[in-house]
């Protein structure tokens, strides 16, 4: 009992008392926009964005779960629905507009945050109520005022704003691409929550009889540590279902299945992690599960070694394919008469590893500015969500995978005779029950290399120990009412 109990209010010491750097973010967007569109003048340009509203659900008194507009959050650090910001490029003044007080709402929800408290909490120059928006916008005579979209914008100013501008989005996305120290600290905290939650799942098999209980275990530990939500719907699967990339069913029994795959990431202060771990239900990997696990781990480690500024993510993705090919030749799934080069040329590995090596991570799980090309005719690259060189301050996922899925085999192998003939089906069928393995870590690109923010182990021996120690416990060692 050496560890202290999780504190949902705990804030990392590194950011304690420091404000989310909204003004720096606005300044970065300003500089990038003026550089991209040289016809704009800093004297007559501004940005104005209104945050997301709370959306009601049809036919009842409930509402959809609130999710702040990520561009709004990036430029404000404010999680209040329908708040707005105005940033004047000339004065570099950032104004936050709090929603006008709705007295009916106060009956149910209490008083909203005051102007004084908002001034203390946020990195803005001025805080006023939203009834000042019209005057403030009208004061900017002759200005070009950019916004993301007009969905939440009040009617009287709609025609004074420029929505959906390509250069404006480019400037915001390029700015979000490189994380500053504050964002990195938030991501570190989210990563720590996620590590503990994965450890919770991995060590609680006596009470995890169904995929949904895997999901519940993760969410329980994440919330206890202060994560209000997940960055995406978790993928929790057992056995052959592990071969479905974005499996969302999460309700099958675990009994009689050898493998578990959980892809889940906690979100903290709107920044998300994205982590996948696989483990054996018995506490000991089966021969085939271990072989595939080690294949994927080798794909991930070899790509990891090459992560540094300047490295092309496409090259690393290709390297992962080549490592898979090498292992499949050794396992006999690919016939030995074909060379590694020949197998790569025929794109046989796509049938087992159809997705990309990884993607950018931040306010969104598939973060902006990755330059994906979903029209790419090359099946190796079509689902690669990051198509650019690495830079210091990017945060990416390194997540190779290997799947045994009837549909993938049909689409990527059986329709292509030149791929099909290279596969030894007698060997392949021995691996089908494994379903799939993916190992996913969250990586910060540093000045000379990388830092792995994900600390939960991916070492197969350590995983066996964690799972086995969990299995030794009785159900009454866990907090379960039913
Ligand atoms: Mn991912």
UniProtKB/TrEMBL annotation:
Gene3D superfamilies the record matches: Creatinase/methionine aminopeptidase superfamily (3.90.230.10), Creatinase/prolidase N-terminal domain (3.40.350.10)
Q: Which GO terms describe its molecular function?
A: manganese ion binding; metalloaminopeptidase activity
Instruction: Answer yes or no on keyword Hydrolase.
Output: yes
Ranges for domain Aminopeptidase P N-terminal come to 20-155
Pfam families, alphabetized: AMP_N (PF05195), Peptidase_M24 (PF00557)
SUPFAM superfamilies membership:
Creatinase/aminopeptidase, Creatinase/prolidase N-terminal domain
Is this entry keyworded Metal-binding? yes
A GO BP entry is: proteolysis
Q: Which UniProt keywords apply?
A: Hydrolase, Manganese, Metal-binding
Q: Name the coenzymes or cofactors required.
A: Mn(2+)
Give the UniProt family note: Belongs to the peptidase M24B family.
What PANTHER family does this protein's entry cite?
A: XAA-PRO AMINOPEPTIDASE 3, XAA-PRO DIPEPTIDASE
Q: Which protein is depicted?
A: Aminopeptidase P N-terminal domain-containing protein
What organism is the protein native to? Henningerozyma blattae (strain ATCC 34711 / CBS 6284 / DSM 70876 / NBRC 10599 / NRRL Y-10934 / UCD 77-7) (Yeast)
Its lineage reads: Eukaryota, Fungi, Dikarya, Ascomycota, Saccharomycotina
